[in-house]
Amino acid sequence: MAAATADGPGTGDDRSGAELAQVLSALGGYRVYARRWVFLLVLSLLSCSNATLWLSFAPIADTVAKHFSLSLEQINWLSLVYFVVSIPFGMAAIWVLDSVGLRSATVLGAWLNFLGSVLRALPCMDLSIQTPFSFLLAGQSLCALAQTLVVFSPAKLAALWFPEHQRATANMIATMSNPLGVLLANVLSPALVKEEGDIPWMLGAYVIPAGIACLLATACLWENVPPTPPSAAAASSTSEKFLDGLKLLVRNKAYLILALCFGAGIGIFSSFSALLEQILCVKGYSNVSQLPGQTIWLAIICSLFGLFGLSLAPIAMELAVECSFPVGEGAATGLLFVLGQIEGALIMVLLTMLTVRRAEPSFSTCQHEEALLDWMVSMLLMASLCAACSCVFVLFFHTPYRRVQLEASAYPSIQEDYVQGGADPAPPREPHPEPPAPHRQPALHGGVGECVSRRCSGSAAPGEP
Predict the structure, then answer these.
(1) pLDDT value at 439 more than 80
(2) In terms of C-beta density within 10 A (0-12 exposed, 13-18 middle, 19 or more buried), how is residue 381 classed?
(3) Which sign does the torsion angle of CA 179, 117, 215, 84 carry?
(4) Is residue 458 predicted with pLDDT exceeding 80?
(5) pLDDT at 284
(6) What percentage of the chain exceeds 70 in pLDDT?
(7) Cβ proximity of 106 and 162 under 8 Å
(8) C-alpha to C-alpha distance for 334 and 22, rounded to whole angstroms
(9) Which candidate, 337, 187, 325, 188, places its Cα nearest to that of 262?
(10) Cα 392 to Cα 394: distance, rounded to the nearest angstrom
(11) Stretch 51-57: mean pLDDT
(12) 303 close to 186: Cβ distance less than 8 angstroms
């Protein structure tokens, strides 16, 4: 029987929880491996790089439009293409994650991300290219394909490689790497591009992290899953077939409410991030936001927007898995993002349609005359959507935590003895005899399979561990 490896000392309740998880893992024949942290590092770097490539043009939209002789509508499409591509190809990415494997999906995503970053830089390397927009859009499209594989993966990685007491942390690190890339893009692009001639340097700079992530993914990731699962839930991961899992998701009321509300949040945040520079330049802000007397308030508002919005991402990923278990983690989180991208594309188009032309104000810093638009109605709509989705989620989202229930029922007597008797749990009790067929405990509502039902009831079929 394999034993769980120690992950370092803890204190108080955290230490007790970690010790309990390790005891249960050891008793169940589960094990964790140090190389899980390498996988987490590679996926986090890849996610961060992909996000920087997505929004690298948005903070300097007017400068890029002027340099390549493009319209602002074309520049917006360099961000909007992420939404468009992820909608049809998101389902394929879900299948790759749950059927082909996590390692294969990560390596494929890393190569698409790297090749897309190189393709974007070609118009600056070869001055004879007459249609730079085609190369920019093609490069962004490859990066968008990579995004579908990257952002769907954190919950899958956490479930397959990490024990119960580390799942939320691993999911949080990998998920929050993506908004970290958004932050870096909004800081680095204006810092690197002071004038039009700096754009080639910026495009080249973004190739470097993409190349490093591609190298690490190809050389350091060797397997889709660990030899021994780290938890009872990992042993039951993707127990539903791909199409069957999708059918269960669309019939799951709690999941649909989560998808609607969180998807709208993704769409609002993504649209606002892509359009932020165009919104602010009308009010006199440059790419480094230097309007006297207002920079502190602008920083506070944007910080609060990011803090309360982005912190929901890892929580929503965990909720998606918990309310839909045993549907595969790739399907549960992937469909959530696909619906979010659909809502994001609609929201971004709607926000731009609601703008109206305004007379050029004396304090405008927009470098492109198409940017002189009034965004007030669009911003009021965005605020209304945020409030409406928050109310719907609070009032109507209710669900049992199915994965937690499975793990809690795997060794119920051990957990009771641990909680009641201290840090030294008693040996596991013998499972109760299986009740007669008419009185057997039914499977959890929503598609938990028969083997999961037996675990939840504390019994097992002959020959089962």
Answers:
(1) no
(2) middle
(3) positive
(4) no
(5) 64
(6) 74
(7) no
(8) 30
(9) 337
(10) 6
(11) 91
(12) no
Q: Where are the beta strands (DSSP E) in 36-142?
A: none
**Mean pLDDT value across the chain:** 76
pLDDT tens-digit readout, 212-249: 999 999 999 988 888 888 877 777 665 567 778 788 88
461 has pLDDT over 50: no
Residue 348 near residue 279 (C-beta atoms within 8 A) = no
168, with CB counted inside 10 A (0-12, 13-18, 19+), is middle
CA distance 87 to 75: 20
* Token pair of 266 as six digits: 């993704």
Query: Is a pLDDT exceeding 80 seen at residue 305?
Result: no
243: part of which helix (H) or strand (E)? helix 242-250
Contact 209, 45 (CB under 8 A): yes
Residue 326, preceding peptide bond in cis (omega within 30° of 0): yes
- Residue 219's pLDDT is 94
CA-to-CA distance for 173 and 225, rounded, in angstroms?
Answer: 19
State the Cα–Cα distance between residues 96 and 99, nearest whole angstrom: 5
> Is 263 within 8 Å of 342 (Cβ atoms)?
yes
- One-letter amino acid identity for 373? L
**Residues 73-84: pLDDT tens digits?**
888 889 888 888
How far out from the chain centre does Cα 213 lie?
A: 17
CA 137 to chain centre: 23
Distance CA 41, CA 57 (A): 26
Strand partners, 374: 356
Q: What phi-psi label fits residue 253: left (phi over 0), alpha (psi between -120 and 50 degrees) or beta?
A: alpha
Q: What was the pLDDT predicted at 303?
A: 75
User: Strand (E) positions, 202-324?
Assistant: none
Asked whether residue 276 carries a pLDDT value surpassing 60, the answer given is yes
Sign of CA dihedral 312, 316, 322, 328: negative
pLDDT at 157 over 70: yes
**Residue of 159, 232, 238 whose CA lies nearest to 415:** 232
Answer for the pair 446, 324: CB distance below 8 angstroms, yes or no: yes
Render 394-445 in DSSP notation, one character per residue: HHH-----HHHHHHHHHSHHHHHHHHHH-SSPPPPPPPPPPPPGGGPPPPPT
Please list the residues that pair with 373 across neighbouring strands: 357
